[in-house]
Design goal:
With 257 residues, the chain is mainly beta. The chain has one helix at 201-204, and strands spanning 12-21, 24-32, 40-46, 59-62, 70-80, 87-96, 102-109, 115-116, 123-124, 136-147, 155-164, 167-177, 185-189, 211-219, 225-236, 240-251. Strand 12 (167-177) and strand 13 form a beta hairpin. The radius of gyration is 19 Å and the shape is globular.
């Protein structure tokens, strides 16, 4: 299990993401015991110099025991609440006890310690019965960019992964708060999904048989452009494979829907 003789087994850690807020830089990740697939979401403050590493204690942000409909919590992604500087929205994948994986969001307070707002449970990102078009079954891997439009509610752009014909593809959903900028946004999938799939020329780029494994997205500083970093599987010969990171840039108008 990767530990030294006589040492306790290591925990399993996966799905890292970064959050900058409350005057600090944080690392979020899913963590479970070595022989358990019930992941909970943890957070740890980082030094802004990458070579230094964590400087704060590890904290449990969202316990899987609190999410009674989920047997595991994955893919944490935290964004500031544009209508309330003291709060943030935690997006995550709920792996349910029965049925398909889906996305949920939890309102967190950033005051003193980062934790769920008292009395507010997590809620589904998408309403029951939402039409995901060609996507079928599981929806996972949320990535969120928040844009403020002039004089209107902020726009949440949420990318997600799902399966189309058995292969991972990337979809987009747009959301805006209905009852004030500090309230939960209501999301609708983009009608022309998927925005990225393996057969598309922008992704394949001459790579025959390549497939999407995972992805992340962020706005490039000082521009309206988005940068996607896609992990793709590249076949080698009859049975070999390797994995590589493939960057893609997209020009995006932050004031448009």
């Amino acid at each position: 299990d990767g530990t030294c003789p006589g040492a306790p087994p290591l925990d399993k850690v996966r799905d890292p993401s970064l959050f900058e807020g409350a005057g600090a830089l944080y690392l979020l990740y899913a963590k479970s015991a070595l022989n358990d697939d019930a992941y909970s979401i943890h957070i740890q403050e980082l030094d802004e110099e990458p070579s230094v590493g964590p400087i704060g204690p590890e904290r449990l942000v969202l316990d899987v025991a609190r999410e009674t409909d989920c047997r595991s919590l994955r893919d944490p992604f935290l964004v500031s609440n544009p209508g309330d500087a003291a709060n943030a929205w935690l997006f995550f994948t709920c792996v349910p006890r029965t049925g398909d994986a889906h996305l949920r969001m939890q309102n967190l307070t950033l005051l003193v310690t980062i934790r769920p707002v008292e009395g507010e449970p997590s809620i589904p990102v998408f309403a029951p019965g939402t039409d995901f078009g060609r996507f079928g079954g599981e929806i996972f891997n949320p990535e969120v960019v928040v844009d403020r439009t002039d004089g209107t509610a902020p726009v949440f752009r949420l990318w997600f992964a799902g399966f189309i014909d058995g292969e991972v593809a990337i979809g987009l959903a747009l959301g805006q708060p209905k009852d004030g900028a500090d309230k939960a946004p209501t999301f609708q999938p983009y009608p022309a999904n998927p925005v990225l799939a393996a057969p598309m020329p922008a992704f394949s780029n001459g790579c025959v048989g390549c497939s999407i494994e995972s992805f992340t997205v962020a706005r490039r500083t000082g521009t309206a452009d988005l940068r996607f970093l896609v992990a793709r599987k590249v076949p080698i010969g009859e049975s070999g494979r390797r994995f590589e990171l493939f960057p893609l840039d997209q020009v995006w108008n932050p004031l448009s829907l």
